[in-house]
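FW: tagging you since you asked about this chain on Friday. Here's the raw sequence from the shared folder, copied in full. Didn't touch anything.
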Amino acid sequence: MLGGLNPVKWIDSLLPEMLWLGMLNNDHGHRAGVQLAKALATAADRAMAPHTGVFAIASTYSSIPSDQWTDIIRLIPSNLFEELQRTLRPLAALYPRSAFTGLWGGEQPQPHDGDIGIMRAQVGTMVNRGGRPAMLAQANAIYIASVTGKLIVNEGSMLSKLEAITQYPDTEESRMAGSAVRAASLMLGRHTDESQQAGSEWTRYFWQRGIEISSCDLGADDDDG
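HL: got it, structure written out here
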């Protein structure tokens, strides 16, 4: 299911793919954020079935035909849909090629004053892969892959104890769960041959567009390879 994989780095590739999860967590808290992410991901998973994509990854949404978004939106409770739009609007507004414009029926929302600052802050929270915001986003990605049947989690494994990540990094169990999450998220981010083009196009565009809209020094990549 996840075979034929290609190398991936956190800042180059995984951060743009999981930023939307971090944005939901940052705006709503982890428990509400993961429920919002799950609502969108499971709706997309149902509407696009059968498929092999993991709707924890932003570029997977680019595989959705424009006319399919109506079905996805219909499957999301209206109160959750409104919160998804509110939080992801700066991303869709500043990045016209973001697949999340589908939440607006394919019509790009207009940018607001302060959106660049919002996105700079959101990205900034995610740069440190081992930091709490990035770790929670990665845990959400693993959870989504699991609940949509794209990742099998063995009973008793650290990935079966994702609840412990809410205490990260304050307990030993949470740090152990964090290590498992980091390893598994690399697997999710290694695009298969059929998704390689979509993934590389989105991540390359994300950083190129970021240079266009804001001069933002994000520091050096980590060495998770």
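FW: The chain has eight helices and no strands.
HL: agreed, and Residues 10-211 form one domain.
FW: great, closing this out.
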